[in-house]
Design brief:
By secondary structure, this protein is mainly alpha-helical. It folds into two domains: 105 residues, Helix Hairpins; 65 residues. It has six helices and no strands.
Length: 182
């Protein structure tokens, strides 16, 4: 819709006298007879729009109807802007809500993966501790068996057997230990 106030270069609150004066000044300025040949066509169009604007704004009833129509259009534009802003805000809210939900899902997945990793780690650690215990137990049994074999061999050799018997008979500490074990 054309802005008749802008065409006549006046304020929306301009009086009838101001509108009349503005029309006369602009009509003289753009009159086709006062223009060069190359500008006549543009001047004729300008005069037509000036006449149209003046016809509406110089008549109080038409001006009132025009102002009401402009006010309704501005209100409608403002309402559309508000709706656009609300839609924009809702869209942004939705985007952020979706991003937040995605971050939460990712965090939950990471927590679940971390929990599973810790479970497997503890399981593996228990397995390694058990294997270490078994190795130590086997090593201890082997050492004891080797010592028993060495003691048996030493006991079967006559010279060491005699020496062991004299050690047992003459040393009360060893006798006490051997008697306690037996």
């Amino acid at each position: 819709m054309k802005d008749y106030y802008e065409i006549l270069e006046v304020n929306e609150k301009a009086s009838k006298e101001v509108i009349d004066k503005a029309y006369k000044v602009l009509a003289k300025k753009y009159h086709p007879d006062l223009q060069e040949d190359k500008n006549k066509k543009a001047a004729e169009e300008k005069i037509k729009t000036l006449n149209e604007a003046y016809e509406v704004l110089s008549n109080p009833e038409k001006r009132k109807a025009y102002d009401e129509k402009v006010a309704r259009m501005k209100a409608e534009e403002e309402r559309k802007k508000i709706i656009q802003q609300q839609n924009y805000t809702n869209n942004i809210s939705t985007v952020y809500a979706n991003q937040f939900a995605n971050v939460q899902k990712q965090t939950e997945k990471e927590k679940a993966a971390n929990k599973e990793f810790q479970k497997e780690y503890k399981k593996e650690l228990r397995k390694l501790k058990f294997e270490g215990f078994i190795r130590k137990l086997i090593a201890t049994v082997i050492v004891i068996l080797v010592l028993l074999i060495i003691c048996f061999i030493i006991y079967k050799i006559p010279a060491t057997n005699k020496w062991l018997h004299s050690l047992y008979e003459n040393n009360i500490f060893i006798k006490a230990i051997v008697d306690a074990i037996s």
